[in-house]
Amino acid sequence: MFLCCWLGLVALIPTTLSTNPGVKVRLTEKGIEYGRQLGMAVIQQKLGSIKIPDFSGTEKVSPIGKVQYSLSNMHIVNVGLPKSSVDLVPGTGVTLSIGDAFISLNGNWRVKYLRIIKDSGSFDLNVNGLSIATTISIKSDETGRPAVSSDSCSATVGSAKVKFHGGASWLYNLFTTFIDKALRNAMQKQICPLVADAVSDLNPQLKTLNVLAKVDKYAEIEYSMVSSPTVLKSSIDLSLKGEFYNIGKHQEPPFSPAAFNLPPQNNNMLYIGMSAFTVNSAAFVYNNAGVLSLSITDDMIPKSSPIRLNTKTFGAFIPQIAKQFPGLMMKLLVKTEKPPTLTFEPNNATVQATATVTAFAIQPNSTLSPLFVLNLEASVSARMFVSEMKLAAAVTLNKMDLTLDKSYVGDFQVGPLENVFQGVLKLVVIPAVNVQLAKGYPLPTIGKMKLMNTQLDVLKDYILIGTDVQFS
Length: 472
Hints:
Number of domains: 2
Oligomer: single chain
Number of strands: 23
CATH class of the largest domain: Alpha Beta
Helix content: 10-25%
Shape: rod-shaped
Radius of gyration: 35 Å
CATH superfamily of the largest domain: Bactericidal permeability-increasing protein, domain 2
CATH topology of the largest domain: Bactericidal permeability-increasing protein, domain 2
Strand content: over 45%
Distance between the termini: 11 Å
CATH architecture of the largest domain: Super Roll
């Protein structure tokens, strides 16, 4: 019931309201059709579980008079749902219609007439012209997750025809009209409750919605609704908060999401638009957690590199280092001064980062002697991609600028060091960042959902993920 799973998102109660969402989700006609197919399989299975109790009666049949009959051991052998449709009612919800359905069952019969004549055999019952119409309401449970139910239902059985086999069945087929009506009424009473059960069976699945999805030990991302859904004739748009928070501390960043609109596309079942706000809220969270820093030592640099973190290498550019700290290894501490900022432009994602680089000489007793502090301004390009159920990325260095903030060894020119630090960024810092980004960040999902035929486009102020889905 893919459609209902996604519709369940509309029932989320937001903890806070913001002007614009960080994430938008659109369910298209293609997605609705996939949901219809899954839903029909579930309802067909439910209708196959119809249980008709044994019943008996007495009817007058010409020319033999009163006939006592009983039907027992009735069970379904076939259910067909050849026609069905799911329609969106703009601004309201979902209607499910099923037409020209049929159900076949068999059972045993027994009759008694003229007081002494008894007979028995088997029978077949074919129910045709079955139609079902139900509306699905979406509410929120006590946890803020969606709960669905069948709000109204009607079912009609066009005809129910019984054919007796065995004994004098040619005679008993004469009074099938009396039994047809009784069986039709008995079956019709069970259809809507079974449809309601099929809808209610979605609720355990809906409880898996990652309204607040843990990313790692530092961060979680919230996907609650920030406004009512927009239900159109052929699609549903959902507006989700899409904001990262420090675990256990929901502090709002000093910036807000910009408005954006999903383009009119219908090639995939589902479209997810994630704004730059969502990614930048992640940077804000990790900066608050103090984890946007990296200590670099010589053993982290490839052996093949001519760049070595020691006072001999740096002494070639800053002679006083070699004089004051001869023959010592060095350590660099790269730490962001403020959260990095990502911007989305068509086909281009760029991150601007401001950091400090503090250089230390490592004394023989392992104490650190500060040498200098540099201000680093760097620009990197980000390649975004979807990995399983997560949004991941990889960055490459565009350019960097260095200025001297503080020196403990006297004044020196920073320019000659730029190639050295550019090499350190490319060889150590960027690969370390990419390892973390490759782990990815969870997308809004429900249950055992798999993305297929996924495409990602970078647009103005947001990225657009178009995908088909499969539920297992």
